[in-house]
Design goal:
The complex is a heterodimer of chains A (about 350) and B (about 450). In chain A, about 70% of the residues lie in helices and about 5% in strands. With about 350 residues, chain A is mainly alpha-helical. Chain A has a single domain, classed as ABC transporter involved in vitamin B12 uptake, BtuC (Orthogonal Bundle). Chain A is globular and about 70 Å long. With about 450 residues, chain B is α/β, with parallel strands linked by helices. In chain B, strands 5, 6, 7, 8, 9, 12, 13 and 14 form an eight-stranded mixed β-sheet that branches. Chain B has a two-stranded parallel sheet with strand order 1-2. Chain B has a two-stranded parallel ribbon with strand order 3-4. In chain B, strand 1, helix 2 and strand 2 form a beta-alpha-beta unit. Classes of the chains: A mainly alpha (about 350), B alpha/beta (about 450). Chains A and B meet through helix 3, helix 12, helix 13 and helix 14 of A and helix 1, helix 2, strand 2, helix 3 and helix 4 of B.
């Protein structure tokens, strides 16, 4: 009833090809952006901004990067955290060693450095596929943190290997409050998500999907496999690199190479699997599921126990939280193997017919 | 399953999420609320359970025995970090919102979480107490006013170990020409002692060989082969977790005497030596605090918290190295609150006031005795310049069943350590544009 496109006629190619062809979607997106950019900074507490929303956005960006590579181009990667580490440490070093470097410039250069490293580790993808490629990217996952620990220059000779990020200053304005950092991250993530959405609809994006679905057929119809795969690695690593820089600068404030471990790579991989492989929206839904749900469950359990007057030890609530979270993952994968994004899509189709389904 | 059920499931998840984050006031009014970022699950859960068990047992003791600190009861909430930096930050942010006065002082019990919180502490005005870990140069309180690496840092430990070895050899002069191998966990933590040991090697004239063990360290054949070829007079073991026990067992296999091995304090708990079995007998380890149950405070905890109030965390852990360290850490927090109360009044205090209390903490031998700690800890006095306080370590030897004291409280090369700390802190200050100086009381 509410969500019905009857009467919306597209009279030009531009109207037919726009990102959100249905008016209700455009309204929804506008409301969402207004809430995110205006409502949240006005009403959310510091806890929400620093501990929930900023990491959610950063991980959504990293998941988006991985989704470009794995979901669209079909190249399985386990090196996401390593590419994030490259972005974070490169941004730190550009900021440290180049006088007068603008911070956004450092983020972009951090992303570009990650892209170069990503291309280097993407070279094996020309010969090997699937699980074997995953193992090859695993090499990046072990090599890069090892290198960052081994060569003290990367951490500016910090004895413990931990780097602390420089303050974020853009045009004289210091981003030091949780609200300002959140807005900065939100702006970057929104822009990059828009770019990704357009990219996957472009010639390159279609080439990625052709390679993903059947690389021999793609080659036959004239797609250059090597270039397509390497561009996918470059773009994906760029996204991960920027996410890594934001992780260090806007979220934690200090990072160590060991923090970018295989565990983090897996988390991001699970985000796209649960959110939806090959979907921009899925990256956001998956990031929300993996980063926010455990915290919500934990808060719910702790506060629930307090409200009921139970004196549970902290370990116990953590265990319960892990069990419930694990069960939820299995539940969602059983009811919807294509991820949360697919759920959303089914929901939209049902809404079109509601309240008179046939 | 029908589609509408799927949608229902999705909607339920959203509702759970939205409903969950309405913080319930956890703390009772008019208490000193202490936020605890602990860990009891995950790879280091066993270590965390002992430390935070002791911590909470002592807080319970203060409430049950003394009725709080000068009548102000303590309340607390523990948030599980799983030794994970991101979770630690989330816990810290959550605990920060809990009480009007903030979470008193945070013990991160993880070097990684310490680094992540160090940036936030000055803005939030919440002091961090890092008891035997964390950033070494934070001992210079003029650059790091909000961080308190209490008692001794890694460099104190490293020079203390060299001093201990010197004593065993019959004086520092005898170290000349000796060979010492450092077997370390190849991580930020393990590399920490290298610069100071190198400086000591040039100064005292011994030869130093550093041998890294990759994480997690459960396979050390090649490292011990190197040690066999090198034939060092002593091996310094900078281990963590499973690495320590493996090193001791491999040493036994290669025939290296355990009496010539000295560990640091994270390689010297019952968790390490019991796992190594008979191979650990004779092994020395530096310690921040003695193990054992013979202290009056331990007896009080056993009789009041465990027997009378039945609020004890876990009876098996009482008296272990890490449990005692947790008790000591809680005592530091409580005494800092007491010190600050003398200046600011007997009411719940803010982080800023507690910070003053920590900086002016003076735990002399008589005070420690009256608190029931006797010889478990060395006397400790903090100041703005010195956020460590004692710089002392004590050595213990594993006799196959328990840790036995093997030395008195002793200091390493404090002049050298202080010089390196000031250099490193000054470098940090210039990098971050901090103007070093003491905060006004």
């Amino acid at each position: 009833m509410l969500y019905r496109e009857a009467g919306q006629f597209r009279t030009s190619y531009a109207a037919d090809q726009q990102l959100l062809p249905i008016r209700q979607d455009r309204i929804l997106m506008a409301v969402l952006l207004a809430v995110a950019f205006v409502g949240v900074p006005l009403f959310a507490s510091d806890y929400w901004l620093t501990a929930l929303l900023t990491p959610f956005l950063v991980f959504a960006l990293a998941a988006l990067g991985l989704n470009i590579l794995t979901g669209y181009a079909g190249q399985l990667s386990l090196g996401t955290a390593a590419f994030m580490a490259v972005g974070a440490f490169a941004a730190y070093n550009f900021q440290l060693r180049v006088p007068g470097m603008p911070i956004l410039g450092s983020f972009v250069l951090g992303g570009l450095t990650a892209a170069v490293v990503g291309v280097a580790f993407g070279l094996p993808s020309l010969r090997i596929k699937g699980f074997y490629l995953a193992v090859a990217t695993l090499a990046a996952q072990f090599f890069i943190p090892w290198l960052l620990v081994k060569v003290p220059w990367f951490t500016n000779n910090s004895s413990s290997g931990v780097i602390t990020s420089q303050p974020i200053v853009i045009l004289g304005y210091v981003f030091d409050t949780p609200g300002s950092k959140y807005l900065l991250v939100l702006a970057i993530v929104a822009l990059m998500a828009l770019a990704a959405k357009n990219l996957v609809r472009s010639r390159i994006g279609r080439a990625w999907m052709a390679v993903r679905d059947m690389d021999v057929a793609a080659e036959v119809i004239g797609i250059r496999i090597m270039r397509t795969k390497l561009i996918a690695f470059a773009v994906s690593s760029f996204y991960c690199g920027v996410a890594g820089a934001l992780y260090a600068y806007a979220y934690l404030g200090s990072v160590e190479p060991d923090g970018f471990n295989l565990d983090l790579s897996f988390r991001i991989l699970f985000m796209i699997i649960i959110g939806g492989v090959g979907s921009i929206l899925g990256s956001f839904l998956g990031a929300a599921f993996i980063t926010l749900l455990p915290i919500f469950l934990d808060v719910l359990l702790v506060d629930g126990a307090l409200a009921l007057g139970l004196n549970l030890p902290s370990g116990a609530t953590s265990m319960v939280q892990l069990v419930v979270f694990g069960a939820l993952i299995i539940f969602f994968l059983i009811v919807e193997p294509h991820g949360l994004a697919r759920l959303w899509q089914i929901g939209k189709e049902k809404l079109r017919l509601w309240p008179f389904p046939y | 399953m029908k589609t509408w059920m799927r949608i229902l499931a999705g909607a339920t998840a959203l509702v759970i999420g939205a409903g969950a984050v309405a913080p319930v006031a956890a703390q009772q009014p008019n208490t000193q609320f202490i936020g605890i970022t602990g860990y009891r699950v995950g790879p280091y859960g066993a270590n965390g359970a002992a430390f935070f068990g002791g911590f909470i047992d002592y807080l319970n003791l203060v409430n049950e025995r003394d009725g709080g600190v000068n009548g102000v009861k303590l309340s607390w909430e523990e948030c599980e970090t799983e030794y994970n930096n991101a979770k630690g930050v989330e816990c810290y942010e959550r605990l920060k919102t809990r009480a009007g006065t903030g979470p008193t002082a945070i013990h991160p019990m993880s070097t990684g979480i310490t680094y992540a919180l160090m940036e936030k502490a000055p803005t939030d005005k919440i002091p961090l107490i890092t008891f035997g870990y964390g950033r070494t140069d934070a001992t210079d309180g003029r650059v790091f006013p909000w961080v308190f690496p209490l008692m001794s840092n890694y460099w104190d430990a490293a020079t203390g170990i060299v001093k201990f070895i010197g004593d065993k050899e019959g004086g520092d002069a005898k170290l000349k020409g000796k060979k010492i191998a450092l077997l370390y966990h190849d991580s930020a933590y393990g590399k920490e002692p290298i610069p100071v040991l190198e400086a000591e090697a040039t100064k005292l004239g011994f030869e130093l060989k550093t041998i890294p063990v990759p994480h997690p360290g459960n396979e050390q054949q090649s490292q011990w082969l190197q040690i066999r070829q090198y034939k060092p007079d002593w091996v310094i073991l900078w281990g963590w977790g499973v690495m320590t026990a493996t090193a001791l067992q491999t040493a036994q296999k290669t025939g290296y005497p355990r009496e010539k091995m000295v560990g640091n304090w994270w390689a010297g708990s019952e968790i390490d030596t019991v796992a190594a079995g008979p191979a650990a007998t004779g092994y020395y380890a530096a310690s921040l605090n003695l193990a054992g149950k013979s202290y009056p405070v331990t007896k009080d905890v056993e009789s009041i918290v465990y027997k009378k109030a039945n609020k004890g965390s876990k009876a098996e852990l009482v008296g272990t190295v890490l449990w005692n360290r947790g008790v000591a850490a809680a005592m530091f927090t409580v005494e800092a609150v007491r010190t600050a109360q003398a200046k600011f009044g007997k009411k719940p205090l803010t982080g800023e006031q507690v910070r003053w209390g920590i900086e002016n903490l003076d735990l002399n031998a008589a005070k420690l005795k009256s608190l029931g700690f006797d010889t478990m800890l060395p006397p400790l006095k903090l100041s703005c310049e010195d956020h460590g306080g004692s710089g002392q370590v004590r050595f213990q030897q594993w006799d196959g069943k328990e840790w036995k004291s093997a030395s008195d409280w002793m200091k390493g090369d404090t002049v050298l350590v202080r010089k390196m700390i000031e250099e490193s802190a000054a470098k940090y200050a210039t990098e971050k544009g901090i103007k070093a100086g003491c905060l006004p009381g």
